[in-house]
Design brief:
Layout: E1 16-19, H1 23-34, E2 39-43, E3 58-59, H2 69-92, E4 103-106, H3 112-126, E5 128-129, E6 132-133, E7 136-139, E8 157-160, E9 164-165, H4 168-180, E10 185-189, E11 193-197, E12 202-205, E13 210-212, E14 215-218, H5 224-229, E15 240-251, E16 260-263, E17 266-270, E18 275-279, H6 294-306, E19 314-326, E20 332-336, E21 339-346, H7 352-367, H8 380-388
Parallel strand pairs: 1-2, 1-14, 2-10, 4-16, 14-21
Antiparallel strand pairs: 3-9, 4-8, 5-6, 7-8, 11-12, 12-13, 15-18, 15-19, 16-17, 17-18, 20-21
Helix pairs in contact: 1-4, 1-7, 2-4, 2-7
Bound molecules: flavin-adenine dinucleotide.
Residues 19-25, 42-45, 49-52, 54, 56-58, 192-193, 219-221, 223, 245-247, 279-280, 321, 323-324, 346, 348-354 line the site of flavin-adenine dinucleotide.
Amino acid sequence: MSDKLPQRSGQSGADLVIIGGGIFGLWAARKAAQRGLDVLLLDAGRLGSGTSGGLLGALMAHMPDRWNAKKQLQFDGLVSLPFEIAALEAETGLETGYRRTGRLIPLPKPHLRPIAERHEREARLNWHQGAHAFAWSVMDSPAVAGWPVEDYCQAGLVHDTLAARVSPRRLTAAIGQALRDHQRVEIREGVHVLGIDPKRKVIRLADGGSLGFQSLVVAAGCGSFPLLSDLGPALNEPLGRPVKGQAALLRAEIADDLPLLYLDGLYAVPHEGGHVAIGSTSENSFENAFSTDEKLAALIEAARRLAPRLQKAEVVEHWAGLRPRAVGGDPVVGAHPDAPDVFALTGGFKVSFGIGHLLADAVLDMILGVPVALPDSYLLTHHISVAKGE
Ligand SMILES: Cc1cc2nc3c(=O)[nH]c(=O)nc-3n(C[C@H](O)[C@H](O)[C@H](O)COP(=O)(O)OP(=O)(O)OC[C@H]3O[C@@H](n4cnc5c(N)ncnc54)[C@H](O)[C@@H]3O)c2cc1C
């Protein structure tokens, strides 16, 4: 037991209980243990078996224009992530498939060129930090023929040198391994949390048991919203909802250091070993969360048109999962106003892998009473106001 937080009798024995072992909960557990806290990490299934066990792994920045605190935070996340990953890989001996390969964005229409050139200037202003500077360069044609096909590059294309990729499964496995090796961390898998009693500081479990906590982080992905929504007075609408996404993994004869391609919501992300991940659909209504269908087939066809060298690539996996999307749109972080020992860490929607480590640090700062500067729209209090209709 660490001496960072006061101990209460009859509790789990941990300073911090975390619900959910997806990318958010995993980073939170790692960072908490690094700060000397004893951690109990619970997951209804296995670590990394939720949406974070997907296959796309695109790490992309917001556009470099109209700079604000949210864009800065995501930029900082993308700049700092490789250092976190290098430490993790050195510690565990496991590779995560991280590489800053950059991104290519075709410009199919002439009017897009001046916009891209404006972004090129804005990236020069905004995309740098110390020795790290990244570019949004407008080019006339692709450096590697056919990646993407020139038909889509009527007005040229953009090369963004900030974007990167990582294997979601390898990254979650590596953090999970580091946690299993850490003496301050206890992991319990197959433990489904049904509810939280903030007054008694107890969580209710599906097996009929209960568990006390001192501080609690709710990082249960889509499962976070019902747990958090029930904590205070009734809300007009839930704090968030699941959005289905489908993706596929192809096996192609291509170099794994090619930049990822992005066009109108379509991603083609080259990974290690000639694998290329294709994503993603965004579905607000669906019957089966985990089935794949013709929408994914259409996406794969669109990717083959954009990059003909994928034409004959074999599809080795179809995958679908649920992204947690908060009612306010942004990630949800921080203490609940009616339950000050319960902290949200969820709702990353499409950008969780680029910022999960930073938001984990932010929530731990809050727990330990260290001042934190996060965009207001990320705070749980903000999302509760939105859900109340205020
Ligand atoms: C098709 C698709 C493509 C995507 N592509 C990208 C991408 O390229 N880049 C990117 O950054 N993001 C991407 N995302 C989004 C990203 O995958 C998610 O935002 C992220 O994985 C969410 O992580 P999480 O930790 O919040 O949730 P999860 O990974 O779902 O983890 C939550 C965990 O909590 C557990 N849990 C849930 N409820 C309970 C409960 N009541 N009790 C105990 N345990 C519970 C679950 O078992 C699970 O393990 C994509 C998502 C999809 C669907």
